Amino acid sequence: MTEPAIELNGISKSFGPVEANKDISIRVMPGTIHGIIGENGAGKSTLMSILFGFYKADRGEIFIHGQKTEIPDSQAAIAAGIGMVFQHFKLVENFTVLENVILGAEDGGLLRPSLAKARKTLKELAEEYELHVDPDALIQDIGVGRQQRVEILKALYRKADILILDEPTGVLTPAEADQLFRILGRLREEGKTILLITHKLREIMEITDTVSVMRRGQMTATVKTAETSPEHLAELMVGRKVLLRVDKKPAEPKDTVLEVQDLRVRDGKGVERLKGVSLTLRAGEILGIAGVSGNGQSELLEVLGGMQTGTGHVRVNGQEIDLTGRFSDGQSRRARGIAHVPEDRQREGLIMEFSAWENTVFGYHRDPAFQRGPFMDNAKIIEDAKGKIERFDVRPPDPKLTAKNFSGGNQQKLVLAREMERNPDLLLIGQPTRGVDIGAIEFIHQQIIALRDAGKAILLVSVELEEILSLSDRIAVMFDGQIMGERLPDRTDEKELGMMMAGMSTNDTDGAVA
Length: 514
Ligand code: ADP
Ligand code: MG
Hints:
This protein is α/β, with parallel strands linked by helices. It has helices at residues 44-51, 74-79, 97-102, 111-129, 144-157, 174-189, 201-207, 230-238, 297-304, 330-335, 345-349, 356-359, 378-391, 408-420, 438-453, 465-471, 494-501; strands at 6-15, 18-28, 33-38, 59-64, 67-68, 82-85, 162-166, 193-198, 210-215, 218-224, 256-266, 272-282, 285-290, 311-316, 319-320, 338-341, 371-372, 375-376, 426-430, 457-461, 474-479, 482-487.
């Protein structure tokens, strides 16, 4: 009988009072792709960090190919044949691909002979695993998909036969993710063992052989992928049944609420980030903006939300909005019926040192409803905050707790409660479920649909294509500061949107919005 490539036995790890890993045991057979899925904070990255020697477990044993192995640091992990592909690549930007691959693995510190040898090895690896990258290209000149391949090559060059990938597709377009999965498939064929950490059920279903579910530091189940379903995995992750599909009626768009014409934004360095964006949005409609992050979506939300200046024309309910920043800011935008859930809630959506109740009125604290004479009516605001906390299921339900002490998902609910309950005409919403658990995602999606059905106009920016496809009534794809085109969700698919997100025009006009 073959030994497991990886066997973890009773691994536990605490950070102060937080038990990140509680008595975890798994066995992963060689030549398989094993998925690890779980909500944010479930303990996945901690477990992988223990396996790669970044953290030392408080208790437990590691066996690699049947051998009990101590992994005090990443050198030991590499020596044991374990490679890790980081979420934030650790590559040197102004070095070539080749130099990055051998960095830290040079023969006796001699670069030149190492380079020649590495070039040959790289060519072989590229052919064996379809991992093609130009060895002489500078890292800064290649896209993230290729940078990720360099990380994989780096691990293979160090003779890894176990590869750990922690949320590898977060930065990729769907086409790049497909390519990555093909590469992982090739690695499996060659007998490599792969641990794939993801919170995306679809990826688990598509590529893994077996999957373990983590919840609150524990490994709650390990199942064969072929014998499970997304619904079942979601239930194991959350601990209750979850509705994975968004339930919604067709939109009934009314009057135009938002008109954007030739909107342009330059960043601090004078680089144009929005290059002439035009769009319209009607009441009772959700316009989803799809795109790989960094293609101008953030600037679009910021300029519309009054946090960034720009040129062009923006009209809300027929009234021109000032884009110069001289006459209008976030506050006066709110007075015009525009609510904004910023992408980066920690930096822009909340004041982390302030309490939850204070955060539930930011931007609206001058509202007469919250004033008593010249002062803020704190008792009233706290009462109001309690209602918001209850309706949005913020946990723990304590309005006096400081914002920074809530988890990411609950912070998001605080911002959503504040912005959505203002009953805005126009809701700008960025990455509504980033870092949010699937149970809360279900709730947030229902709230967004309810607001649409109440006749509000919603501009949704998300890098999650599934979210865009399931919520939007129309989809616009952004690439390099421009709108590549618009599609109707039921007449397009991830493949077509993915191509547009990569800047390729799809000549196929079927599904285009006239
Ligand atoms: P996941 O990768 O599943 O999202 P993590 O392993 O990153 O989860 O985190 C598990 C828990 O451990 C979380 O509550 C997190 O806040 C905590 N944690 C992780 N790393 C540290 C650390 N270096 N110091 C303190 N707490 C940590
Ligand atoms: Mg993690």
